[in-house]
Design goal:
heterodimer; A: 196 residues; mainly alpha; B: 227 residues; alpha+beta; five-stranded mixed beta sheet; three-stranded antiparallel beta sheet; 5 helices; 30% helix; elongated
């Protein structure tokens, strides 16, 4: 397996994760509007959310390790900050998934949000190097130096960004467990409204 | 359906998708060579300024060439008060890519601006057109000499080889090839790219700076250094 193959593999996974996240959001919006099929489908997905988030985090971590340890793409400063945010998520999400603890999202959120912000900034300065310090380091790679851009746009920073956003979406867009629960929630919200 | 089975089915389906994606990536790249990508970088070693075939500081490709340093190296550049200002820069004797000899430092016919550039550095790539625009504006002092030093050469990184890179960028001034250990860069106290050093006609340091600048910023820096 060549580095080129792995680059393409992770770029395609980024596309899949990005499209999956958009689909997840679309199903969630439909469920919120009372679409029965989306509620049932979303309920099924919701049960697997923590496991799927774990899968994303673990894949990101393994990809990151491959690119630094096997492909010898030396991580830049911002890459390290993103790694600090991403690597613990695998362990935290594994515990959360085993314990069926949807509350794990609150432990994941601070790391994932910080990681997403850094990844977003990293991706931005890859395209707008003048926003950075303006110099490439002699002893280490510049954060604006891009190792590769698959399909012209997918760099390591974008992969990281999509990873963090996907994890947050999986954990925070919660579906009602069942159609009945949805109806009950609707009734409860109606009752809360003040009488005319 | 048992919720546990449903979770297993969903996670299993996603793992299957991942496997299919890996198969697609494998098929798409099998049989091809390591042709690199749009940025010109590729998946090989990231090591910098090293070359397998060394010959007195240069390599067989001619993209790095031997550099002799005469005199004491300058201290590494740091922002703030620069202790190198007023001290003589070491004289660098090397070659251009056409093999002609180039000397940087020592007594010359006017001030000299030395610009250290790395072919793979995006900031250096952005700096070059700004300097060319400045030259075309006619605002540069007539007696100012400008010389590039192509340094930190890495065959595995973007825009290699630097000789073709400078041609493509239409670099209008002479360019010296640094050796495969970036000796000229280190002797001049460079720590990052682009790195610019202004010398007076006697070869003493007037100013140093690092980082990308616009044409206007560079002109202001030059005027201040020569004032």
């Amino acid at each position: 397996v060549t580095t080129e193959t792995v680059q393409l593999f992770f770029a395609l996974l980024t596309v899949v994760a990005g499209l999956g996240t958009l689909a997840w959001i679309a199903v969630w919006v439909a469920a919120r509007r009372g679409h029965e099929g989306s509620i049932e489908f979303g309920a099924s997905l919701g049960e697997a959310a923590v496991w799927l988030a774990l899968l994303v985090a673990a894949t990101c971590m393994l990809g990151s390790l491959y690119f630094s340890e096997v492909a010898d793409f030396v991580p830049c400063r911002l890459c390290w900050f993103q790694r600090i945010a991403m690597y613990p998520l695998s362990a935290v999400l594994l515990v959360g998934a085993i314990r069926h603890d949807r509350g794990v999202r609150w432990y994941v959120a601070p790391l994932a949000v910080v990681g997403a912000v850094i990844a977003g900034y990293h991706y931005l300065i890859e395209w707008r190097p003048e926003l950075d310090t303006g110099a490439c380091g002699l002893t280490g790679p510049s954060c604006t130096a891009v190792w590769f851009r698959e399909f012209g746009v997918i760099s390591l920073a974008l992969m990281s960004l999509v990873g963090f956003v996907t994890i947050l979406t999986l954990l925070f867009l919660r579906f009602p467990a069942t159609l009945n629960e949805h109806h009950e929630a609707e009734r409860a919200s109606l009752q809360k409204e003040p009488a005319l | 359906v048992n919720p546990k089975n449903r979770v297993v089915a969903i996670v299993g389906a996603v793992v299957l998708v991942v496997a299919v994606v890996f198969g697609i990536a494998l098929l798409a790249t099998s049989g091809g060579d390591d042709g690199g990508d749009a940025t010109g970088s590729n998946g090989e070693s990231s090591s910098t300024v090293e070359s397998d075939s060394t010959d007195a500081g240069g390599d067989q490709s001619g993209e790095t060439r031997a550099v002799d340093v005469i005199g004491d190296p300058l201290p590494a550049f740091e922002e703030g008060i620069d202790p190198a200002v007023g001290t003589p820069a070491p004289v660098l004797e090397g070659e251009a890519y056409d093999g002609s000899e180039i000397t940087i430092g020592g007594p010359t016919d006017g001030p000299t601006m030395v610009v250290f550039l790395a072919h793979w550095c995006p900031h250096c790539n952005a700096e070059i057109p700004e300097l060319i625009a400045l030259e075309q504006s006619g605002d540069l002092p007539d007696d100012l000499n400008v010389i590039a030093v192509a340094t930190a050469v890495d065959p595995t990184r973007a825009n290699y080889p630097p000789s073709a890179w400078l041609d493509e960028k239409s670099w209008p001034w002479p360019a010296m090839a640094d050796d495969n250990e970036s000796t000229a860069m280190f002797a001049s106290g460079g720590t990052s790219f682009p790195y610019t050093m202004m010398l007076d006609a006697d070869g003493n340091v007037l100013a140093r700076k690092t980082g990308e600048s616009s044409a206007e910023e560079s002109l202001a820096w030059i005027q201040q250094a020569l004032a």
